[in-house]
Design a protein that fits this description.
Radius of gyration: 21 Å
Largest sheet: 7 strands, mixed
Strand order of the largest sheet: 2-8-7-6-5-3-4
Distance between the termini: 39 Å
Helix content: 40-55%
CATH architecture of the largest domain: 3-Layer(aba) Sandwich
Bound molecules: pyridoxal-5'-phosphate
Number of helices: 12
CATH topology of the largest domain: Aspartate Aminotransferase, domain 2
Oligomer: single chain
CATH superfamily of the largest domain: Type I PLP-dependent aspartate aminotransferase-like (Major domain)
CATH class of the largest domain: Alpha Beta
Structural class: alpha/beta
Strand content: 5-15%
Shape: globular
Length: 384
């Protein structure tokens, strides 16, 4: 553990839990938008009198009904999937941890986008891997990827192709095909982490990397119900090609035998109840207007010379303040003014960019977003 840093993000989240704080920090769904009634009905169904199996141990790969339902949803999104391709995990975070445990030996190299989702870096660090970042500026460059693969000989490439955490960036279809080609040429595993893919607010979906020629038998696709249903359920999944399944299955057994029988059954019942698509459509509508409110407010709030991403979905915007500013140094003043964000430096493994910050737009309605941006603007003006 000595080589793995604790998550500074979790510490910031602890400071921002008070209701006074307008927090743009966490990637949190708005609890007001949880389908409380639908989830209550689903739990009621699985807790019907006499239904004792939901309290029992169950199989490692997960609830058959839940796996069939996820396979069906993936098929409808253009990725033909059999229930046996899937392993249910305790949140998609566990899918990342299992993948690292199953595929990596100490000293192996992992390529990641820079900046990158912090807790994935922790998983790779814990597995003893050497993490090599793909440079930050602009979208991933397939030529540079090929060059780095030849030079660094990585075993695995970690990607968040849809609405990346933290930048909000989405990979084009062309880029996905190119990445698949490079991976096939060099025998590279790909981890395609996709917790946000169904939260698209504009534009057309691109194919999953797992569906691109050359990547089919070397991509582990990771998904989650955290952002589209409720993170407290801790239900995620991975879709693995045949060659990785046995190792992943053993890793899951050693981690926790299986994911909660009760919670899996409740999510399966929720999906069978037919409410999920309507619920996701409602989330999309609400989050799209929140993203718009944030995009509209940023020009006034941020100092001249700032730039920011304009995502097509997900939960995050990536801001770059003028060169001389340091988002980490400004955070204590922001917290005193009851507004929070995550300094961008936490998402870098190589040379960090202190002028960056990640803003999440999902946790508050548009009026509170405007209020939070006004406070952030005042703090940043004072810090110039
Ligand atoms: C990119 C990414 N992957 C995985 C996760 C883990 O999510 P969960 O374990 O709740 O499914 C998150 C959570 O924020 C994330 O942003």
């Amino acid at each position: 553990m000595s080589g793995v840093e604790p998550s500074a993000l979790r510490e910031i989240l602890a400071l921002t839990s008070h209701s006074r704080v307008v927090s743009f920090a966490g990637g949190l769904p708005d609890p007001e938008l949880f389908d409380h009634e639908g989830l209550r009905l689903a739990f009621e169904r699985v807790l019907a009198p006499g239904a004792r199996h939901v309290f029992q141990y169950s199989r490692t790969e997960g609830d058959p009904e839940l796996r069939a339902a996820i396979a069906g949803r993936l098929g409808r999104r253009g990725l033909p999937t059999a229930p046996d391709d899937l392993l249910i995990t305790t949140g998609s975070q566990q899918a990342l941890a299992l993948t690292a445990a199953a595929l990596l030996d100490p000293g192996d190299t992992v390529l990641v986008e820079e900046p990158c989702y912090l807790a994935a870096l922790q998983c790779f660090g814990l597995a003893g891997a050497r993490v090599v970042p793909l440079p930050a500026a602009g979208p991933l460059d397939p030529d540079l990827l090929g060059e780095l693969v030849r030079r660094e000989r990585p075993k695995l490439l970690y990607l968040i192709p849809n609405f990346q955490n933290p930048t909000g960036r989405t990979m084009t279809a062309h880029l996905r095909y190119e990445v698949a080609r490079v991976a096939a040429d060099h025998g590279l595993w790909i981890v395609e982490d996709d917790p946000y893919g169904e939260l698209r607010y504009r534009g057309e979906p691109a194919p999953a990397v797992a569906a691109c020629p050359g990547a089919e038998d070397r991509t582990i696709l990771v998904g989650s119900f955290s952002k589209i249903l409720a993170p407290g359920l801790r239900i995620g999944w991975l879709r693995a090609p045949h060659g990785a399944r046995r190792a992943l299955h053993i890793a899951k057994q050693t981690a926790d035998l299986h994911t909660s029988t009760l919670d899996q059954a409740a999510v399966a019942a929720y999906l069978a109840g037919g409410r999920i698509d309507g619920h996701i459509a409602g989330l999309r509508q609400a989050y799209a207007s929140r993203m718009q409110a944030m995009l509209e407010g940023l020009a006034n709030a941020l100092p001249d010379g700032s730039t920011w991403s304009t995502p097509d979905g997900g939960m995050f915007l990536w801001v770059r303040l003028p060169e001389h500013m340091d988002a980490e140094a400004v955070l204590p003043a922001a917290l005193r003014h009851n507004v929070a964000y995550v300094p961008g430096s936490h998402f870098f493994t190589g040379r960090s960019d202190p002028a960056c910050m990640r803003l999440s737009f999902t946790a508050h309605p548009p009026e509170r977003i405007a209020d939070g941006l006004a406070r952030l603007g005042a703090v940043l003006q004072g810090a110039r």
